[in-house]
Amino acid sequence: MPVAKKTHKQKLDVVGNPCTEKQITPKQEEFARIYVCEDITQTEAAIKAGYSKDSAHAIASQLLNGVRYPHVVERIKELKSEIARKYEVSFEGHVKKLAEIRDSAITSGNFAAAVAAEKSRGQAAGIYVDRKEILHGKIDQMSREQVMLEIENLQKEFPALAAITDKNETIEAEATTTIKKEPIPIKKETV
User: Fold this and answer.
1) Residue in 61, 64, 32 with CA at minimum distance from that of residue 48
2) pTM assigned to the model
3) Are 41 and 76 in contact (CB under 8 A)?
């Protein structure tokens, strides 16, 4: 007799009849399912589940109250965890899906999308590393000599900068400005 294939995925907890096993009514089960699965408000979920439009807001609020209806709140948590497990992102699944996208793009002749998908696979695998350096320092805290020395170092490191500055000859020009400081009068108030 053949043995069933073992997978790395966990089994989902399938509830045969949530009404009897979870102690909730069919309307409450429907509300929980709609509330978790659809992108709507709690009031809209209550209306879709079959509750009256006039009292849907109050009923939805009560159903989400863990003190009054703990079984409904627990069922909502169970449904959310089942969905999270179903759509869980794993490294293997992610890379496999990107490979499928790449292959589909190549088949349809969309080579730009194929390259993008392959690059994303490489990034996920750690082949490509996005490296950024953030340097801290303030030029206004440096003396003129330090600034000129730093400019010369940059020109040595990047010869293209030296060629541009040789044409302009503006680095040696000295900028002087005079700021006149005047005292600010302070008014004293008496109380």
Assistant:
1) 32
2) 0.45
3) no
